[in-house]
Amino acid sequence: MSETISTQCCIAGGGPAGMMLGFLLARAGVRVVVLEKHADFFRDFRGDTVHPSTLELMSELGLLDAFLKVPHQEVTTLSALVGADRVHVADFRRLPTRCKFIALMPQWDFLNFLAGQARRYPGFDLRMKADAVDLVEEGGRIVGVAATTPEGPLTIHADLVVACDGRHSTLRDKSGLQGDAFGAPMDVLWFRISRLPDDGPETFGHIEAGRMMIMLDRGDYWQCAYVIAKGGLERIQAEGLAAFRARVLDLSPFLGKRVEELSDWSDVKLLSVQVDRLRRWWRPGFLAIGDAAHAMSPIGGVGVNLAVQDAVAAANRLAAPLSASNASDEDLQAIQARREFAVKLTQAGQLFIQNRLISRVLSGQARPKAPALMKLFNAFPILQRIPARLVGLGVQPEHIHTPEAAA
User: Fold this and answer.
1) pLDDT in tens, 132-152
2) How far is the C-alpha of 46 from the C-alpha of 304, rounded, in Å?
3) What is this structure's pTM?
4) Strands, DSSP E only, in 17-76?
5) Hey, is 250 helix, strand or coil?
6) Can you tell me the distance from the alpha carbon of 76 to that of 100, in angstroms, rounded to the nearest whole number?
7) Which residue in 289, 293, 349 sits closest to 180, CA to CA?
């Protein structure tokens, strides 16, 4: 059975960008429909790092104390083992924020928290199992979304459609907006291995000749990211799971027999890394933000937080005109102008690291040594504030300027 509804803003995608934007708009009194194609938010191996910039937003919203009651781990420093050299890369403890750490929190908990807060406002409508499959266009302007649901087709007429449906965005493709892909020399294999109380503090990264792995302390398990050459999964699988376990153990010998917890290739998830960016993020009646506008490399774990910053900037600009049903092309253009510099600079940094460090490590035969710049972080700890600020706060952190309507 088909259904047709109308709203002021329709958001496709219930990820960090979509949920934060939907929450902030509903909080400001805008009628908003969020479409999420899955039945819940429980999807493993998504971005789980909530950076100080996002935690600061929670504080500005008066939600920080409640948010920090959600189970999480706190990372105050980042370090790496490059060959035999241990280098301390970043120290968040001196950031000018209330929370001087990265919170490691499953993304489904983060999204459920935002959804719970948004539901307090009457204008918020979250539709689960609603997959946005096409745009509705009239006279060259986007005026709505066509979606599929278990109950049948759903059409949403909206003053503005916002694509927050990720790096494989359906609505971005349907919009006809053009982008540029910048390539990536690597993919990432994600997996879990149990953690013992005496394992010691978290290790941010371990780099050896041709190999690189990052381990994040998630309390009772290690979340591991094993970096491989782009398109190298089939070759690694052909060598066998035992050979892969041996590679992991060689980088982290303390894991011992726990590597046998990887009993099947289904325990290892592939993240195909891509870095791209739309040239224009909008067209009349349509806006793309987050990964739908700019897919980020996993370097620094900044993707989730950039998406949240996009959402805050969009809400700041759009809340008033959407309430009056007169959001203009100038508003959409202003959002891109506001956020594009931060995205470009962040991607430039990621591409530099990918091409100058990671690609050389993955193709190298000799045991690597820490670059001189990284060694300076050990010699002059004050320098650790620079990467801490870039990772923790980003190039241009946003702040909440939207009002709060009656709940």
Assistant:
1) 999 999 999 999 999 999 999
2) 9
3) 0.94
4) 32-36, 49-50, 73-75
5) helix
6) 7
7) 293
